[in-house]
Structures are given as C-alpha cells and as structure tokens.
Amino acid sequence: MGCHRFLNTVSRRDLLRTSATGFAGLALAAMTGQSGQVHGAATSGEAGLAQVPHHPPRAKRIIFLFMWGGPSHVDLFDPKPTLAREDGKQLAGASVGSDRKQLGTLLASPFKFAQHGDSGVWMSELFPHLSRQADRLCVIRSLHTEGNAHGEALLRLHTGQANLVRPSVGAWVSYGLGRENENLPAFITISPPRGHGGVQNYGNAFLPARHQGTAIGSAEIPIAQAAVANLGNKRLSSDVQRRQLDLIQALNRKHLDQATADPQIEGLIANYELAFRMQSTMPNVMRLESETQETLDLYGVDQDPTDNFARQCLLARRFAESGVRYIQVSTDYTWDHHQKVKEGSITESAKVDRPIAGLLEDLGRRGLLEDTLVLWGAEFGRTPMVENGDGRNHHPRAFTMWMAGGGARGGMTFGSTDDFGYAPADRPVHMHDMHATLLHALGLDHKRLTYRHAGRDFRLTDVYGNVVHDVLA
User: What residues contact residue 34 under an 8 Å CB cut-off, 6+ apart?
Assistant: First the structure.
C-alpha cells in the first residue's frame, strides 16, 4: 500500500492505536504533554539532550536509596545514651521544646553503637558491611520535614510539596541537565512505590512529558521478575518499526509545522524517538549475566536475604555508568515499624546493608563514586517514644539521611538532635535545604531552575531552601 493511499484510508488516531506495541506502547505511557515556558535550563540541539549547568558540578548523577516506611534514626545512626538511661520514663514536652506536657514513654534502642573508620562515624551494629564504608559517608542527623502521614511525607520528599501536583526531583534533574545518553532516559526509578502518591513520586507534572521517570517494576514485585513495559516487539522487526515510526513522526511534524509551537507534539516526537532507541540499549543494561561472580557476591546477588535489593543496586550502578542522571532504588513498604521495631529493624537492615556497601565499593573502584552522589534516606524517622508496646510512631520532626561520593564530604557527621532524638538541636536541615543541596551538587541553582506554569514560576524548593555548603567537599 502506498503512503498517500494509506494516509487517505487510515486516520491518524487509528494509526496510533493500532501500531506496533514496541516503541509506541512505551512512548504513549508518557504522552501527556503540558504547556509552559522554560526559564531555568539551557537549550541544546535536540530536545532533551545534555545541557549546560548553572555552575561547575561536583556530581553528574544521583542514586537515591529510598527506605520506604521510615527507618528509626535512634536505632541506626543517632545513638542516644540519655534515651537508654531514661528508658521507660515519660518524656516531658518542655525538655524537647514541645508545648505538650507529656509526649509518651521513652523506648531505648536495643542495639549497640560504635564508631567506625578513621573519622569515627557512629553506626548501629545493624550495618556491619556499611560500617566499613564509614569514611565515605556524610551523615546528616538534623533532617526535618512536614507530614505525619506517609502520603504527605513521601510527596514532600519526592516533589518538595504535598499540595497540588508537582514535578518530582528526578524530573527537575532531567529538565535541568537533559540526557547524557541519547538512548536512555535521564530519570529511571527501580521498584517505585505504587502507594502514598504513586506515580506522582516520579512524575513530571507540568514539566514536558519526556522528564517523567521510567519505572522498572514496582516495590512489591521482585526485581528479577520486573521489566519495562512494551520495551520490545517480537512480532515486528526493528526495520518495520522504524518505518512505522517515520510515518507517524512525519504526521506529527506536519502538525507541528501548522501549529508553529505545540509542547504536546514536541514532547510526543521526542518520546517516540527515545522509546525506539531504548529497545536496543535498555535490555543490555538490565542484563546482569555479564557481571563477574565476584561482583555478584559483593552485592549479595542470589543470596538470602539480600538478593532483591542487591539486584536493584547493581542495576543502579549499570544505569549510572550508562549515563542516566537520576536513579532511584526503593525498598518495599517494610520500614514502617509501629510494632516490633527491634525485629523489623534487624530484618530490613539485613536486606540492604550488604548491597548498599557493595554499591559504594563498586562505584569507588570503577571511578564512578567521584561524580555519583549516593543518597540514603526515607520520608521521616521514628519517635523515641514507644508505640503499641514495642514499636515506634512516625516522626518528621527529626531524622537522619546520609550522602556519599559526588562532592559529599566523607567521614562527616553534620547536625545533631536533642538528647532523645526528638528534634534538631544544632544545624537543622529542612527537606527544602536537602533538595537545594542536591541540585547544587549537580551544578544547578535551585533558585534559577524554574518553569513557568499557569502564570507563575515554579521550582522544586518553591520559595524556600538553602544550600548546605558545609556537607559538600
């Protein structure tokens, strides 16, 4: 059938609907274009490719290790001898700056703490492998945020705000820096949470559609069974798909010429092209068979209980060395210990300790840690008071995150909480400050990285945020 005859008998809508599911199915998942005006990112020859940062970067990319549910900081990175001495007593609100008379019954940590490395970073006995990487860690003990519920706190962690629909951190990074590899997206999220905000946690909101994160599986699916939907097409060859795509793109560009400017069509064209190219690159990056047995053992692949998170971390390293700008790795919703915080912390730490240490070691020996910023943390911490007899409640007032590599000042502990771990006592760091600092490490000024939407300029940190320069080398 000739091209002109085909165009006369098949509508553009029918063509989009019936085309091969390889490049088309993948691209259509992110085809919700938005209107807006770019203010904060440089432009390049092809939409989405690498752009010039605002200032010299310390890092080229970020790997975010997300512990969904909220680990207890006073059981992992923030030892409290006073909490141990006052175990079982009531915590007076006045002693931690609260207006409430009594805040609850104190619960001491059941775990031993020790200093590690030449720098003497304090860590719980639950992280024997990570403790060997202590001199690479910059532990920030004074994080605080808003949102006592997981949903609100996750949105603030991932998008900076919980009101309205805002772009995620990874989407802002993609928008600000573009893609380093033309065959891969700038933002990939491995095993993302489907609850507590779901796709908003890696969405593009009003930013152009190409900045939405590409999801691999979801938190509750073992990563060995996960895949990128419609990444390949077994029915049609690459050549046939390319010809289909060329025809569709010709129609899209004709529409764009007639419209002069249409961000929806521009985003559609860019996403179709990227989706087609991903078919030749993404499967190879996701194959772990090429890794040596020594590397698999370093992460804990094919071993219990580390296998699932080990595979996620190893994929993160492979995507990092392939040029992906922002990679998130998420646990399942298993850190929410309202009961049995001791047993739960033991179980969950054992799953991630070795893979995380392996990731840092592997990045380091490959020369990737110098320009890869690794971030560990969650939406909030846990209370120093007991809940349900042997658990701890949500606690956004104070918690711990750490960074390594990519310009982070290794072997450092920054900020502190009070004697009970209830509130920051020194050098508090708000979530907006953390976001500003992450962008700064990537060479992006959080005040200049803006996007005009609905008549106003938006940014990740809204009207807040200060770069914490002291945690950067």
Answer: 204, 205, 206, 207, 208, 209, 263, 264, 453
Average pLDDT over residues 139-164: 97
- The answer to whether the CB of 54 falls within 8 A of the CB of 254 is no
DSSP 286-354: H--TTS-HHHHHHHTTTSTTTHHHHHHHHHHHHHHHTT-SEEEEE--S----SS-HHHHHHHHHHHHHH
The CB density around residue 169, as the number of other CB atoms within 10 Å, is 26
Q: Which residue has the tokens 């860019």?
A: 270
pTM of the model: 0.88
- For 93-250, strand residue ranges (E) read 102-105, 113-116, 121-124, 137-144, 187-190, 214-216
Per-residue tokens: 301: 């692949």
Rounded CA-CA distance 178/43 in Å is 9
Q: How far apart are CA 407 and CA 356, in angstroms?
A: 18
391 forms beta bridges with 387
Alpha carbons 175 and 49: distance in angstroms, whole number: 10
Q: How high does pLDDT run on average in the chain?
A: 89
**CA-CA distance, 194 to 309, in Å (whole number)?**
17
Around 416, how many Cα atoms within 13 Å sit in the side-chain half-sphere?
9
**Token pair for 182:** 């033309």
H helix or E strand, kind and range, residue 274: helix 263-286
Contact 371/325 with Cβ under 8 angstroms?
A: no
In CATH, which of 3.40.720, 3.40.50, 3.40.630, 3.30.70 is domain 19-44+56-370+377-430? Answer: 3.40.720
The pLDDT of residue 268: 74
Dihedral sign from CA coordinates of 216, 222, 223, 225:
negative
Q: Which residues pair with 472 in a beta bridge?
A: 408
Q: Are 111 and 126 in contact (CB under 8 A)?
A: yes
Residues 160 and 65: their CA atoms lie apart, in Å, by: 17
